[in-house]
Specification:
The chain is an alpha/beta fold and 252 residues long. The protein contains seven helices and six strands, in the order βααβαβαβααββα. The protein is globular, with a radius of gyration of 19 Å. The structure holds 3-methylbut-3-enyl trihydrogen diphosphate (2 copies) and magnesium ion.
Length: 252
């Protein structure tokens, strides 16, 4: 890997127009349960404590100029957790969407849900529909919230819809498949951050992460601080993305 060119600016350099700022940052918010257990609290306390961190990261990323943020809140596999935890997480999601939508709308944030909506409770589904409708023309930032989301389920759903639209095998290309994903019109994530120490995708944005950069931190989600986000952005700025090609010689 080549070294950073001298004129390279980084986020913490407070550049008004930073070079190599990710357009889209996606975050796997992990470690809530372990955070709570370490403190002798029930796991759900960790999920509650994590909510404030969503506000914090949106502020930090927004100030840096990131235009698309995706947060992974509940996977298709998370339904296999004890019912009390699932109900607790759903309740927190309901509260967050209900209480935060207006504020996010005032800040020009467009809210998009990624995932299945047919298995959500009626109240949550209503709040999600309202949030998406209210904010659909906002342009300052797009916030995608992935819940009841799984990358494999998303790809299968796309294939089924393509078939039911009578599209022939010959017509199926990457751009077409993209249009059938929950993320249609959302650029692929440039940077995926995972908190909580695990180094895996856990079924997150499988198709879209083909050329994403990854940043892992052992910090549990409720302990996350702005400095770790800044570190992730700085680290991203130092990466060399080649997309399978080779780097152009500097100055050529
Ligand atoms: C992530 O935290 C949030 C969800 C999966 C809903 P966890 O609940 O997975 O926390 P750990 O990984 O068990 O600590
Ligand atoms: C991924 O975390 C899902 C979310 C953060 C919403 P998990 O805790 O479910 O993932 P695994 O089980 O450690 O792979
Ligand atoms: Mg986990």
């Amino acid at each position: 890997m080549s070294s950073i060119p001298e004129n390279k600016q980084t986020i913490s350099g407070n550049s008004p127009n930073p070079i190599d700022l990710p357009l889209h940052v996606a975050i796997i918010m992990d470690g809530n349960g372990r955070w709570a257990l370490k403190k002798g609290l029930p796991r759900i306390a960790g999920h509650r404590a994590g909510v404030d961190k969503i506000r914090m990261i949106l502020n930090v990323l927004g100030e840096a100029g990131v235009k698309f943020v995706t947060i992974y809140a509940f996977s298709t596999e998370n339904w296999s957790r004890p019912k009390s935890e699932v109900l607790g997480i759903m309740g927190i999601l309901e509260d967050v969407i209900e209480t935060e939508t207006e504020r996010l709308h005032q800040s020009g944030v467009r809210i998009i849900h990624l995932g299945r909506s047919d298995r959500l409770g009626r109240k949550l589904k209503t709040s999600v529909d309202h949030a998406q409708n209210l904010t659909k023309h906002n342009q300052a930032m797009t916030l995608c919230i992935a819940f009841d989301y799984g990358g494999r389920a998303e790809i299968l759903r796309a294939i089924k819809q393509i078939l039911s639209d009578g599209i022939s095998g010959q017509e199926i290309e990457e751009t077409l498949l993209n249009k059938y994903l929950y993320t249609h019109n959302i650029p692929d994530p440039d940077l995926i951050i995972r908190t909580g120490g695990e180094k895996r995708l856990s079924n997150f944005l499988l198709w879209q992460s083909a050329y994403s950069e990854f940043y892992f931190t052992p910090v549990h989600w409720p302990d996350l601080q702005a400095k770790q986000i800044v570190e992730a952005l700085d680290e991203f700025a130092s990466r060399r993305r080649r997309f399978g090609s080779i780097e152009k010689a500097l100055g050529s």
